[in-house]
Specification:
Layout: H1 2-13, H2 19-36, H3 43-64, H4 66-74, H5 78-81, H6 84-96, H7 101-128, H8 141-144, H9 148-151, H10 160-187, H11 204-216, H12 222-246, H13 260-279, H14 285-324
Length: 325
């Protein structure tokens, strides 16, 4: 038993914290596919279970070695990625709602509290030692990522003000941070190679804000929808071009950053398609956007499969090294 516990401790100690981003991407992809293809409804709970298992490994890692948690929180890159764990729990809560609305709501609220706590921690550590060149696109995650709560909102009227408030905060933080991020990417020093995959996060905030807006706002304004849609498409296309270089990089745990931004892009545009149909505002966009949904879905599945293959090889290598030590 002691040997088994020792092996488990070694295994979880080497689980990379950015893997929470992969959990978010997988849970979101399963939900997205089940929405687009109802016959594959089972993918939503299965992907939620897989994401939950990944988060469990990370929790065990921090239980065994709590010093690693503080180190990750203080790290300018990993600390910005940690909130993806809370975002994953929000997505999981939506799967739970099929079985218990009450439990799902409690989990959703706890996930929001966790995210805000991680945001507070991120701001604390970064304010103590801020450098412009530490700024990377994953910094969007702490102040904007909680908009996932809007996408997963269950529609409870009592929580509507909270959901709307989170959306407005997320959009404000996104618009405030975006010019600084663009300036840093254009004028700052080169991003280290192992951190370059975080560039993919640039595609996520606009799509997330768009998906959140269409999820919680009772009467979406066409101007807001089309403005966010334009930014989302431009950012996603820019990341597609960046993938020409990013996908050639040697594997690093930061590859997890490739996953969620692609899935939320599919989710956002599919919500726009549904909204256009309900409002009879196709204006020639409907068929174009529908084709774009299928195209982005294929790209998302291909890239996430690529990331999963690399992560599997990485974890098998860790497991082999632990068994030999």
């Amino acid at each position: 038993m002691a040997t088994l516990l020792s092996y488990g401790k070694k295994l979880t100690a080497n689980i990379p914290t950015p893997m929470s981003g992969l959990a978010l991407g997988l849970a979101s992809l399963g939900w997205c596919i089940s929405n687009l293809f109802p016959a594959f409804f089972v993918l939503k709970p299965l992907s939620a279970l897989l994401a939950g298992f990944i988060l469990l490994l990370l929790v065990l890692k921090f239980i065994h070695q709590p010093a690693l948690l503080r180190a990750d929180l203080a790290d300018p890159v990993v600390g910005s990625v940690l909130p993806t764990s809370a975002m994953t729990i929000m997505v999981i809560s939506h799967s739970i709602s099929a079985y218990s609305h009450l439990i799902a709501t409690v989990v959703w609220l706890l996930a929001i509290a966790l995210h805000l706590g991680l945001l507070t921690s991120f701001v604390y550590f970064r304010s103590r030692n801020f450098e412009l060149n530490q700024l990377v696109p994953s910094w969007f995650i702490p102040p904007v990522g909680f908009v996932v709560a809007d996408v997963t909102f269950n529609g409870m009227s009592a929580l509507q003000p909270l959901a709307m408030g989170l959306w407005y905060l997320g959009v404000i933080f996104y618009l405030l941070l975006l010019p600084f991020m663009i300036y840093r990417l254009c004028r700052g020093s080169a991003i280290p190679q192992q951190t370059q995959p975080t560039i993919a996060v640039m595609a996520a905030p606009a799509s997330l804000c768009l998906a959140g807006y269409l999820s919680v706002h009772p009467m979406p304004a066409a101007g807001v929808v089309f403005a966010l849609l334009s930014i989302a498409i431009i950012m996603t296309l820019a990341i597609y071009l960046a993938f020409i270089q990013l996908l050639r990089l040697p594997f690093s745990p930061a590859f997890a950053a490739y996953t969620f931004p692609l899935v939320i892009g599919v989710t956002a545009i599919s919500k726009v398609v549904t909204w256009l149909g309900s409002e009879h505002l196709s204006l020639g966009w409907l068929s174009v956007l529908q084709y774009l949904v299928w195209f982005e879905l294929v790209v998302a599945i291909a890239v996430i499969s690529h990331v999963c293959i690399h992560y599997t090889r990485f974890l098998l290598k860790i497991s082999t090294a632990n068994s030999e030590s």
